[in-house]
Amino acid sequence: MTDDDKTKRDFRDRDRVAGDEEYEVGYLASKFGLTIPEVRKLIKEHGNDREVLERKAKVLGAR
């Protein structure tokens, strides 16, 4: 596992969710009212594209 260096401020990976980073998974879970396992399942099913994940999480969280 590699550490996500938060001191590096470029935006190359801002459109991707690092599924192995707890803070990113936790952020999506809290933002959309989901559980950590639900977010991990979304990442597994739809990949790590942030736009796609947020769209799917919004639908799932609205249920």
Brief summary of the model shown:
54% of the residues lie in helices and 0% in strands.
3D architecture notes:
The protein is mainly alpha-helical and 63 residues long. It has a domain at 22-61. The protein is built from three helices and no strands. The chain has helices at 22-32, 36-46, 50-61. Helix 1 packs across helix 2 (36-46) and helix 2 (36-46) crosses helix 3. The longest helix has 12 residues, at 50-61. It is globular, with a radius of gyration of 12 Å. The mean pLDDT is 83.
Keywords for this structure?
63 residues, 3 helices, mainly alpha, 54% helix
Number of strands: 0
Strand content: under 5%
The helix tally amounts to 3
N-to-C series of helices and strands: HHH
Q: Percent range for helical residues?
A: 40-55%
- Class per helix and strand makeup: mainly alpha
List strands and helices in order, with pairings.
Blueprint: H1 22-32, H2 36-46, H3 50-61
Helix pairs in contact: 1-2, 2-3
